[in-house]
Amino acid sequence: LQSGGIFASIADRMTRILWILSIAGIAVGTVIAQGPQGQPTQSPASRRPPKTVTPQTYSKEQIEAGELRFGSQCGFCHGRDAAGGETGPDLTRSKLVAEDNRGDMIGPLVRAGRPDQGMPAFSLSDADLAAIVAFIHDQKTKGEEPGGGRRSVDDADLAAGDAAAGRRYFNGAGGCSACHSATGDLAGIASRYHGLDLLQRMLYPSGRPAPARPKVTLSLPPFGQTIVAPLAREDEFTIVVLDPFGVRQSYEKSSLKFKIDNPMSAHFDQLAKYTDDDMHNVYAYLVTLQ
Amino acid sequence: MRRLLLGICLTALTYAQTDSWLTFHGDYSGQRHTKLAEITPDNVANLQQVWRFETHQNQQIKASPIVAGGVIYITTPDNIWAVDARTSKQLWHYQNPPNNAFHIGHRGAAIYKDTVYLTTPDCHLVALNAKDGKVKWDVTLADSNKGYWATNAPLVVRNHVLVGLSGDFDNLPGQLKSIDADTGATQWTFYSTPPPGLNDKSAKESTSGGATGGQMWTTGTYDPDLNLVYDGTANPTPVLNGDARPGDNPWTCAIVALNPDTGKLIWGFQVSPHDWDANEVPVLVDANFNGQPRKLVMQASRNGYFFVLDRTNGKNLLTTPFATVNWAKGIDAQGRPIPDPAKFPSQSGVLVAPNETGATNFRPPSFDPKTGLFIVSAQDGYGIYFFKPEHGSYGWAGADYGVAGRAFLRAIDYQTGKIVWNHPIGDGAGTAGVLTTDTGVTFSGDVSGNVLALRTSDGATLWHQALGDRIGNGPITYQLDGRQYLVVGVASSLCAFALPSAAAQIRAAPTGAPIRVMLLDGESGGPYHKWQLTTPVLRKELEETGLFQVDVVTAPPAGGDFSAFKPDFSKYTVVVWNYDAPDERWPAELKASFENYVRGGGGFVSVHAADNAFPNWSAFNEMIGVGGWRGRTEKDGPFWFYKDGKPVSDPTPGPAGNHGQRTPFQIVVRQNHPITNGLPKVWMHQGDELYSRLRGPGKNMSVLATAYSDPANNGTGRDEPMLMTLSYGRGRVFHTTLGHDINALSSVDFVVTLQRGTEWAATGKVTQKVPSDFPTADSVSYRTDLAAMDPGYNRGLNPLDASPAR
Q: Beta-carbon neighbour count of residue B12 at 10 Å?
């Protein structure tokens, strides 16, 4: 900095504070905007399978080209029929696909990938991408017709449990109530998630919106300042936390004292304890929390 | 080289060669254990990255490289490259024509005499000349339109190239084909389930219970004495509809022993009667079992059980779980887990351990003969499995979803199945295989992108290095010119590590004479550059390497007497400038003295605002290449920056020098150079001034790294030069624009590039390792010990510190 003198660092600090305020302001604004309408995930489009928002048609040639490209690039994870595979979800029941119009949402997602969910970025030509989009929409249209759609789980399939037994397990043997409450954090959970989505989140919260990050308490040398920050990443050697700007700050574990409070550990441990009946019962109980 | 390739023969493969890695497993045993002894538990922490080969494909490397005659052959789907094993220089690249078969991954090539064999997603086997990559022949193994694809690294036994196929989404029999190594003719085909021609329904049911599948997609092992090939077979199809295929479904989910000359089954053992994939490596070991010398085959299977069999006859000696399992209700008299029908996929779903990714997978394990430990990348994981009649009986026929997993490197005592040690490597499942050395080191990787060296006896960490991405294959090793290399696949590239060469070790030794460094300070362009505070930080950073002996030389202040200021540059190998003064400050003879010093071979390092100094001293501006402020304009040279990935010089008029607020930003490496070698391609730098609009002569200048100057933060929208090297006469110059204040100086990347840049300016080489806390593409990393040298630090220098205590 060539002008501004000794006040430069103060000016920087002021900017940072302004940024914090503006980030907070955006967050507040969003909450207000959503408040009167309730949760945005409760739009009619969230019914399974969600209906295509903007009807669109594609040429037979493009769909056929898309089938080939989809098969080779996407099929292993999403199934060659786009109805779900080893690791990828059923795209014919995807909300994003339903809301996509000629690739405006699918395109950017395919190009950027979803590294946090194991989907790599794909560099495809515009023509290939358009063909893949055509094929996905065509499969979705077919899936909306009776008899379509394989390898998927309907909400009704999961209705095998006893809600009362689930409630007893939740408040008793399962120990769920140590962290959760039917009238607190889980109030209305079944109106936010349902079916397989609800079951998966119950077993091990993940996906979007992402569960809260574990909290880390760090003690920084040499003065021993204590910092509490959300955990961004951790391995055997390094701990990465988010600073107030959302920038990741990395620390060598060997150089400081730290404590991680990870509520997900209890979810993982629970997987070894559930019987299949317990799992279905707790699910049935959560379904009652409308 | 030619002779060496021709020398590849049966005996060479019985034990791992030292100068090569001749099969997917290195040898026929599948032990992935090397006799090479240069890397030991004592020196492994000195490993340095020596090269990185980037394939520029968006496919992760899952293949084990083949190394023969000083050449590495590495594959991704549809691609194979031959690269020099010492330098990673590309020798040739072959690309299969585009096709629409599954591109899920590729396990590697095979080599025999002077031919390299590549399987392709569309089920071709291509024979290539090892020397130049020219196609010798190309045969079709199966019809990929029917749902077959190929990822397989073939196993060569004499003139038999044994190739397996994949295909889970259609009801297809598993096959292993023997292809004539010279002609490409099919010698025999082994079907693990009834072949397509067998139309008699009852015959089909009596053999496999009506199941298809049992694909053979991984690379087997071979015992030359017994003349038996051991291979794993995959799950049956329909995959999740067990009702459609009653019984055990041989030979799916099995270890099979085949005669490589005829393809005849000698014996088979089902590790998961009725379900699961069993393609994991059948590792061959000759060792005592219960006091008897035995010929053993061992497998840590995807289903979560560890098996030891007598490989002469397939009789079971040990079955024990090595990961969390809940799908079996016991072990039968033959040593096979008994599937629990309550855990068969159901309409409402069952919670099953392991999940589909498995307790382990194709990532290869290693057997260490000295400790008797079988070391495997294991996962304790759960999935939910569904099937209802509407799902039908074709292909997957059901649905399953992984729930969660925890990944470990796990050491199993082969005689008891007991877990001797368990090293956590993160959440989910690991992706790296395992390599052990005779000296007692275990190499693998974690899920966070670190390469790991563990002590084989107890699993303690000896060394690690962040690679920026996960290892996706099995590590390999070889020795050339007396130097042992460790090679791992990281995302789409191969990385090689080795101990510093003998010469480098001598130079870096603390007993060697230190490099003499003059650290010049005494003035800055304003009080915001507090040289009195930053010089001690720079000094500490240089001295802690043990390479440098630093003398601080402080020039007289503005208005001071320069008549007695005659620093003897010639006593120093390199001069580091933490100094910025106007043209009139230095007398002509002082300027001439510094010019002569650099021109004659002296090293010069310019830190941050030193490139503001002396706008009209032309020799100085040639040394720094670009500079800013103090009235610099188009008369001093063009702007230098990167645009669309290419270097640009732009003569547009305008003042030189600009920056925005001090926020963290990403730095991108643009050139391979000793200073940047081993650094990630992209990293985050701590909050600092990002200099832009620098101009100057730019002569003999290489831009090593740039950063994007964001218009939202008073930037140019260009990639601005951050780190540069230049030559002036015989002198080497390292120019870093980074380092505004102690906050910036404490950023680990600043420390590392200053240390390396100074060594390079002094010697032309860099012998320093990259520390493990080097920042990654999305995380800054700074040193609290350095940051604390700022008097303001305990009031909150880092944004985290500034946040109110919560």
A: 16
